[in-house]
Design brief:
Two copies of one chain form a homodimer. By secondary structure, chain A is of the alpha/beta class. Chain A folds into two domains: about 5-130, 2-Layer Sandwich (Enolase-like, domain 1), CATH 3.30.390.10; about 170-415, Enolase-like C-terminal domain (TIM Barrel, Alpha-Beta Barrel), CATH 3.20.20. Chain A has helices at about 60-70, 75-80, 85-90, 105-125, 130-135, 140-145, 155-165, 170-180, 195-210, 225-235, 255-265, 280-290, 305-310, 330-340, 355-370, 415-420, and strands at about 5-15, 35-40, 45-55, 185-190, 215-220, 240-245, 270, 295, 320, 380, 395, 400. In chain A, the strands form two sheets. In chain A, strands 4, 5, 6, 7, 8, 9, 10, 11 and 12 form a nine-stranded mixed β-sheet that branches. A three-stranded antiparallel β-sheet of chain A has the order 1-2-3. The longest helix of chain A has 21 residues, at about 105-125. The first copy, chain A, is globular. The interface between A and B is large, with 65 and 65 residues.
Chain lengths: ~425, ~425
C-alpha cells in the first residue's frame, strides 16, 4: 500500500494575448493558463492534472483545486484507484463543497483536475496510456465509473452496459486500426478572429499542405468580415476541405438564426456555440431553424445533466467534449455514453494548454470501446504550447497519432512549470 | 468624487452542523458560512456583500470574491454606482474571468457579492433601504440594469419596459400597503430532516402559534419517514396551514414522479427541487406528471438563462430566487422580470446566513414595481443567525416587515465577523 504524501499546485500562465492567439468573439485576449496539480505518493510515483483557464482567475481555480486535492493527503492510493467511481462520487457529493456548484464552474472543474491526476497515476502504474487503459476495462468496470444520477430518464446503467457490450467484439481490430491510421484531426489555427487576412490565407494554405481535411474559423464579430473571411478561406482550401465556424456564444437565438442563414451558402460544416452554452432550448430552436446545417457545442457544458438535455432536445448534432470543463475522465465517459445512446458524433474541443494532450485519450477510447466509429468525428487541433508537455501530441498528415507513453497526457515539464508559474497570484 | 480604497474579506463560518440545523436529503451537515466582503471608500462610507456557502469551500468562494473585488481598488465610486448595469457587464463579461463559469458557480456568485456590496453602498448614500431605492427607479433605469443577452427569445427590453410601466401607477399605494401589512412569510424551521418527531411537532405548533400560514418540510431521505412526518405535521398545523415539501435535488425524474405521487394525498403546496437544478427538461416532465401539484425551484439556478428556460418549458410554477446564487441584484431583477412575463409567482429562498436579510428587498421591490402582487407569494423564513446582522429581519405574525434602515441588509456586525472568522482557511 502507498499513500499520497504531497499535493503541489502551480499557477501557470502563458502570455498568449500578445499575439492574439486564441482570440474570438467573446475572448478577445486570452492568456492561456493552467491551474496545475501534482500528486506525489510515498512509493515515489506521481499523478498530474490541471484545469485550463484563460488568465485572470487562474488563482481562483487553483484555490478550488487545492481545496479538493487536500482531502487526499495521507490517503491510501490503492483503494482510491481501484474504485475511481466511488472516488468521483466522494468529491462530487461532498456535502459542503457541492454547494459551490452544484456540479458546475470552479469547484466542478477542480474535481476534474484531481480525478484526472488520479487517472494519470493509475495509468502510469499500469504502464499504459490512458486511452489503452480505459479501452481495456470491462463494460461492468466502465459503468461503475459513471454516476447515473440525473441521467436515468435518458440513459440507464443497463442501456450503458448494452452499448459497451455491443462494442466489445471489435475492440482489438479498432485498436490496431487506430495505431496504424491515426484519428482525424481538424485545425483552428488559421481562424482566430484577431488574425488579419494575409495571416488567415497563409495559415489556410499551410493547413491544406499539412493534410487537414477540415478547418474552423471564428465568426460573430462582424458579419461582413465573416463573409469576406469565409470566401477567402474557401478559395484557399478548395472545395474538398470542410469549413466549420465558431461563434463562441456571441448571439441570442434569433440573431444566431439570422446571421448563420446568411453564411449558409458557404457550405458550413457546423456552427459551433451559437449562443449561451446553458441554453438547451435556444440551441434546439436554432438547430431546427438552420437544419440541415449542423449545430455543435459542448466545451462549456457544465456537466452531464446539460449534455443529456442538449441531446434529448436535439440541440446539437455534434458534441464537443472538453477535457477540463467537467469533473474529469469519469464524467466524460458519461458524456461519451450519452452521445452513443443518441447517435451523436463526438468531436472533442481542444487547444488551450494541454487540452489536445488530454482529450485525445477520450476520443481514442470512444473509437475502440464506445461508439466504435470515426465517422463524422475529428479532434480539434491548435498548434500552441505542446512543447511544455512531457508527452506532446503527435499530429501530422491531418491526424492524431495515439501515444504509447503511460499516463493521461497531463504532465508538464518541471522546467516549463517553473518558468511560467506566477508567484503569489494574481 | 470618492474612491474605493480598501477591500476587506472574511471567511465567516458558523458550526451549525452540531445541531443538524439546515439538514436535508443532500446537505446532511452544513456549517452555514459567508464569504464576506467590505468595500471602504475614502469618503468613509462602506458597502457590504457576501456569498452564502455551507462550510468547506468557503475559502474557494472567498478567493473568487477577492479576484473580482480587487478590480475595484482605486476606482471612482460615483460612475460605478451611477451605471450599475455597465458595472455588472464589466464583471460578467470580463474576457478572462468569464471562462471560469461562464456565468455560473464560484465566479458568478463572487460577482454577485461585489455587485450587492455596491448596491449596499449606493442605498446607504441615498439614505434608503434597497427595496425602496429600487422601487423608486424609473422603468428606463431599471431595464438599464438588466443584461438582455440570451433573454430576447423570451423577454425583450421593450417587453420588460411594458411590464414595469404597467406597474407604475400603483407603486405608492403598494408601498404603503407593504409598510402597514407586511409581506407573507413561511417557515422551514420545523422541517429539517435531522430533527426527531418530537422536535418536528413542537416546532409545528410554535409555527402556527407565531402566525405562519405555510410551512415546509424536507423530504427525500426515506419514503416511510416522509409519510409519517407529513401526517404528524398535518395533524399539528390543522387543515388551514399549507405544507410544502423540499427534496433538495435528491431524485431522478421517474423517482420524483413516483415518490411525490405517493405524497400527493397530503395536499402538498409545492414540491421543491425534485431533481437537478440544471435539468430544465426533467422539471418539465415532472411538472406535467404531477399536475396540478406545483413544482418549485430556483435557489440553485445558476443564472438568468436557466431561469428563462425553466419558465419557457413550464418546469416550475413557483420561482425561488436566491440572493447570493446569481450575479447579484441586477440578475435578480432579470429573474423577477422573467417571472412577471410568464405570470409565475416568486417565493424567494432564504435561511442560511443573511439570505432572509438580503432577499426580502427583492420581494418588496417585486411587489411595488414589477409583479404588483403578493398573491401566491411568500418569503422563506428560518430563524437562525439573524443576530449577526446590523439590520436583522423583522418577522412576526407570519410576515416580513419592511426595514427602513438604509442599505441592502447585507452588513454583519464587526464583532460577529471577528468572532466567527476562520483565519488562514482551511
Amino acid at each position: 500500500m502507498s499513500s499520497i504524501i504531497t499535493v503541489e499546485t502551480a499557477d501557470v500562465r502563458f502570455p498568449t494575448s500578445v499575439n492574439l492567439d486564441g482570440s474570438d468573439a467573446m475572448n478577445p485576449d486570452p492568456d492561456y493558463s493552467a491551474a496545475y496539480l501534482r500528486l506525489v505518493t510515498d512509493a515515489g510515483d506521481e499523478g498530474h492534472g490541471f484545469v485550463f483557464t484563460i488568465g485572470r482567475g487562474n488563482d481562483v481555480q487553483l484555490a478550488g483545486v487545492r481545496a479538493v486535492a487536500q482531502l487526499l493527503v495521507g490517503e491510501s492510493v490503492e483503494p482510491l484507484l481501484a474504485d475511481l467511481g466511488a472516488t468521483w462520487r466522494r468529491f462530487v457529493y461532498d456535502s459542503q463543497l457541492r454547494w459551490l456548484g452544484p456540479e458546475k464552474g470552479v469547484i466542478h472543474m477542480a474535481i476534474g483536475a484531481v480525478i484526472t491526476a488520479l487517472w494519470d497515476l493509475r495509468a502510469k502504474r499500469e504502464g499504459k496510456p490512458l486511452w489503452d487503459l480505459l479501452a481495456g476495462l470491462s463494460p461492468e468496470e466502465l459503468v461503475s465509473l459513471v454516476d447515473f444520477r440525473y441521467l436515468s430518464d435518458a440513459l440507464t446503467e443497463t442501456e450503458a452496459l448494452d452499448i459497451l457490450r455491443r462494442a466489445e467484439p471489435g475492440r482489438q481490430e479498432r485498436r490496431q486500426w487506430l495505431l496504424e491510421h491515426g484519428y482525424p484531426a481538424y485545425t483552428t489555427t488559421p481562424g482566430w478572429l484577431g488574425y488579419d487576412d494575409a495571416k488567415l490565407l497563409r495559415l489556410c494554405h499551410e493547413a491544406v499542405a499539412e493534410g487537414f481535411a477540415h478547418i474552423k474559423l471564428k465568426v460573430g464579430g462582424n458579419r461582413a468580415d465573416d463573409i469576406r473571411r469565409l470566401r477567402l478561406a474557401r478559395e484557399a482550401v478548395g472545395p474538398d476541405v470542410t469549413i466549420a465556424v465558431d461563434a463562441n456564444q456571441r448571439w441570442d437565438v434569433a440573431e444566431a438564426i439570422d446571421w448563420m442563414s446568411e453564411l449558409a451558402p458557404f457550405d458550413i460544416a457546423w456552427i459551433e456555440e451559437p449562443t449561451s452554452p446553458d441554453d438547451v432550448l435556444g440551441h434546439a430552436t436554432i438547430a431546427r431553424a438552420l437544419h440541415p446545417m449542423p449545430v455543435a457545442t459542448g466545451e462549456h457544458l457544465a456537466n452531464r445533466v446539460l449534455t443529456k438535455q442538449l441531446l434529448q432536445a436535439r440541440g446539437a448534432s455534434v458534441l464537443q467534449i472538453d477535457a477540463t470543463r467537467v469533473a474529469g475522465v469519469n464524467e466524460n465517459i458519461a458524456n461519451l455514453l450519452l452521445a452513443a445512446k443518441f447517435g451523436t458524433p463526438v468531436c472533442p474541443h481542444a487547444g488551450g494548454v494541454g487540452l489536445c494532450e488530454a482529450v485525445q485519450h477520450l476520443a481514442f477510447f470512444d473509437l475502440i470501446a464506445v461508439s466504435g466509429s470515426v465517422e463524422g468525428r475529428r479532434i480539434e487541433f491548435v498548434d500552441h504550447l505542446h512543447e511544455h508537455f512531457v508527452t506532446p501530441v503527435e499530429v501530422h498528415s491531418g491526424r492524431y497519432w495515439a501515444p504509447l507513453a503511460p499516463g493521461a497526457g497531463t504532465e508538464m515539464h518541471p522546467d516549463s512549470i517553473r518558468r511560467h508559474t506566477v508567484p503569489g497570484a494574481p
